[in-house]
Amino acid sequence: MDFVEWMRSIDLSEKSINNYANAIKGSLTTWALRHGLTTKPISDITDVAELAVLIERLSRTTEFINRDGKGKGMYAAALGNYQKYLQAQNHGKPNDYGPYRKQVAKIEAEADELFDPTGQEDARARVLREVVQRRGQRKFRKALIDAYGGRCAITGCPVVPLLEAAHITPYLGPDTNAIKNGILLRADIHTLWDLGLLAVDPDTGEVWVSPDVDDPTYRVLSGQPLKHPSHPAQHPAVSALQQQWDLVHKKRDEAALGMP
Questions:
Q1: Is the pTM of this model over 0.70?
Q2: Rounded to the nearest 5°, which phi and psi values hold at 253?
Q3: pLDDT of 189 higher than 60
């Protein structure tokens, strides 16, 4: 069963099928080749792990971010559906990395340990390790994916390989892995959060984007409401959002005063 047939089998509309198939064969492959992320068409990739790594890297390029924003998430949806197609073909599960699943399981089991990048591991193993560790502790990330329905709390991005478990207040050990101190964010959004360039106003629940970030892809997020889990008990703690908000603005005030 090819990609188009698989999409029909899950009852996607013909318009979506054409859009996703054309995106995979056309624009997405062109961008991936241009950035040296692959040497072949994405439609020729059959390995789940290889695709996961490509998605993670491609999603960080300015070209993808800008075009996906204009396309209202169409390109991210195309990659997400192609990923599901490969998983179905390999009889895999959402986190099944095909022939690399044992390796990834070992990496995830060691996620709380420090990683020495000077080791002699294969390049693929190092990439997989980085992806797994960047996503956060396994149980914490899984809990957030379930709570947020597999979508970024700020952008709504549904491509699970790109989503990371972010701590609202800094990670200070297992106790801070409480779901109310967590928020599911797309990788680039997580980076802005950690840098203090993005926060959530605890009073209004709206996203705040630092004026220092002038890229329109991110500016449009400012003022948008945070997307909450459906269960109120899983909503971010207002006290945690307040702490992050105060920390971000304290740093901005200190910077404005020229304080170290």
A1: no
A2: -65, -40
A3: yes
